[in-house]
Amino acid sequence: MNSIHFYKYQGTGNDFVIMDNREGQYNWLTDEQVNELCDRRFGIGADGLMLLNKSEDYDFAMKYYNADGRESSMCGNGGRCLAAFAHKMGVGDGNLYFIAVDGEHAATMDGDSWVNLKMQQVDFVEHGPLYYYLNTGSPHFVKYVEDVQAVDVFNEGRGIRYNDRFAADGTNVNFVQHFENGIFVRTYERGVEDETYSCGTGVTAAALTFAGQEEKEYVVPVQTLGGQLEVRFTKTGERSFDNIWLCGPATLVFEGDINVK
Ligand SMILES: N[C@@H](CCC[C@H](N)C(=O)O)C(=O)O
């Protein structure tokens, strides 16, 4: 039995197990163990697990696993939670620079539990009949609907994620409705293989597709099942975007110790 000390964080209900691995003390963790720790009945329960790793060139390095135990592409809410955790552990001065699977990120703390996270620029958006497909660090299919609350996100999302085009590599699937002065987004997440309460890269993808034709700065309020986020960005071309910031809450829920086989 190996013992780990963990921290459970959530960002608009997208929840994560976080471990401080700056000394490499959890390098022995296997994909199966990650999957067990994320299990909501037999483990701690989470949509994903992250390691706070040491980096030579940045304040820290982010390693992200989906709940299925596999290392995956970028997690926006995870990045915000890991930045809040690094800040709690005394890293940085409220402005953090870290490296993740999709490249460099900046994060700024607004208090202890509000994190603004800079995302990678987006240079291409596929636009088909009634859908968009783009990569904001993770791949996202975006479908606009009239009544997002009426969508069967699990079955419809799963149908798209496992269709002939996406089955092999998978995709996340977002259902989006215009809501007040912004959008409401519900997401089926690859690697969780279920709807989550919020998906940061998904919310970012949806907000970019919500921009008008004009090349200018946009601020899009986004409602999710787990709370409110805001995406700020500059539209730089017909299908390109820069200076993209995902902004919202990221909070510690509890910490503890657990033995893993
Ligand atoms: N919840 C995340 C996305 C995590 C990665 C995703 N499940 C995938 O495998 O693409 C977010 O907040 O961005």
TrEMBL record:
This is Diaminopimelate epimerase. It catalyses: (2S,6S)-2,6-diaminopimelate = meso-2,6-diaminopimelate. The record marks H140, E189 as: Could be important to modulate the pK values of the two catalytic cysteine residues. GO terms for molecular function: diaminopimelate epimerase activity. One of its GO terms (biological process) is lysine biosynthetic process via diaminopimelate. PANTHER family: DIAMINOPIMELATE EPIMERASE (PTHR31689:SF0), DIAMINOPIMELATE EPIMERASE, CHLOROPLASTIC (PTHR31689). GO terms for cellular component: cytosol. Homodimer. It is found in: Cytoplasm. Its main location: cytoplasm. Gene3D superfamilies: Diaminopimelate Epimerase, Chain A, domain 1 (3.10.310.10). The gene is dapF. The active site is at C75, C199. Pathway: Amino-acid biosynthesis; L-lysine biosynthesis via DAP pathway; DL-2,6-diaminopimelate from LL-2,6-diaminopimelate: step 1/1. Catalyzes the stereoinversion of LL-2,6-diaminopimelate (L,L-DAP) to meso-diaminopimelate (meso-DAP), a precursor of L-lysine and an essential component of the bacterial peptidoglycan. Its EC number is 5.1.1.7. Substrate binds at N14, N66, G76, N77, N172, E189, R190, G200, T201.
